[in-house]
Amino acid sequence: MGAEKKWLYTLFSGAFITFLIFLSFISGLSSSYYYAYPPNKPFPSTIDHGPGRPPSFAYYISGQSGDSDRLFRLLLAVYHPRNRYLLHISADGSDEERVRLVSMVKYVPVIQAFGNVDVIGKPDPNTYMGSTNIAAILRAAATLMKVDGGWDWFVTLSAKDYPLITQDDLAHVFSSIRRDLNFIDHTSDLGWKEGQRIQPIVVDPGIYLARRTQIFHATEKRAMPDSFTVFTGSPWVVLSRSFLEFCVFGWDNLPRTLLMYFTNVVLSQEVYFHTVICNSPEFKNTTVNADLRYFVWDDPPKMEPHVLNTSDYEEMVKSGAAFARQFDKDATVLDMIDRKILKRDRNLATPGAWCRGRKSWWMDPCTQWGDVNAVKPGPQAKKFGESIDKLVDNWNSKSDTCAR
């Protein structure tokens, strides 16, 4: 009997400790964003920002319920110690899934050392075609500005995206361009979108209902605005810090006014930033008309682009794009990109000039690092650089880069 009581005591003690650990995770996740690591931890290598140094990027990587593995894989594919990362599983995901994502992130040695990855603990809804998406992006931008004052560009990615270049490639090419440029596909030629996207009045219930549901339409349409010009384009953007500060802090009322207007527009993420930047005298000539993504659209086009596979690999490589979408989870073509472009093994960060360890089948070269301010571009940097040069040359040739 004594042995049985001792066994029961051990069992309940273990269960109680496990419960306390789980509660500690949940208490962290109840905050507006959850730090995977303490933000004031000393860096193992000095990160320098500013002129003469490579640019840094703030990544907002978002997904839905069931996307934790995809988010983690994408994080490792685009990871660099100089960058900042914010991961978001929307409100339809569970706290247990967020805890699992945090646990995967925290055991990556380099992330543990640099503490530059955060996971949102109080998630935002992600209503399909609704305006909650813009609210989530603006929140992410504000959070990333709060936790890190050094990054230069803000990049939006989803769990269905994947890089076609390394972060050393990206930093190397972007070192040669102005840091106030915004890569945003845009046009004022609305076409069919005017009658089907802009004029219809919709309500996103994700704004005021706890459970996720679909947008619903009002019975009437509204006239097109005449106090500003509506622009539309790709929802995937690479935006400068200075422009996002304008959107978030709003020393001009334009960003707030347009946010209120586009709250009731279908797919507001395809019009909000585009219209703000092209109606702002301060920023309208900082727009490079491209989203730096590789897509393949079906014919006739559907709501989402074609799902990429191994047959698309060669065209992706030749495209000169920085990212591609969309991919199925654990698609074979992702393994090809890891192996041939990123030189990355499964569950390991993409190596760069900062990795100083010796690579072998049993050792991660990025468990040891040197100067994180050094970059070493790979073969894809040349193609990507040529693509950026053409885009910037085209931008330089125009006096009004938001012209129709």
TrEMBL record:
Residue spans crossing the bilayer: 7-35
GO CC annotation: membrane
Pfam families in the record: Branch (PF02485)
Residue ranges that the Swiss-Prot or TrEMBL entry lists as coiled coil: none
MF (Gene Ontology): glucuronosyltransferase activity
Topology within the bilayer: Single-pass type II membrane protein
Keyword Aminoacyl-tRNA synthetase: no
InterPro entries named among the record's database cross-references: GLCAT14A/B/C, Glyco_trans_14
Subcellular location: Membrane
Keyword set, alphabetical order: Glycoprotein, Glycosyltransferase, Membrane, Transferase, Transmembrane, Transmembrane helix
Keyword Glycosyltransferase applies: yes
Name of the protein described by the UniProt record: Core-2/I-branching beta-1
Organism: Perilla frutescens var. hirtella
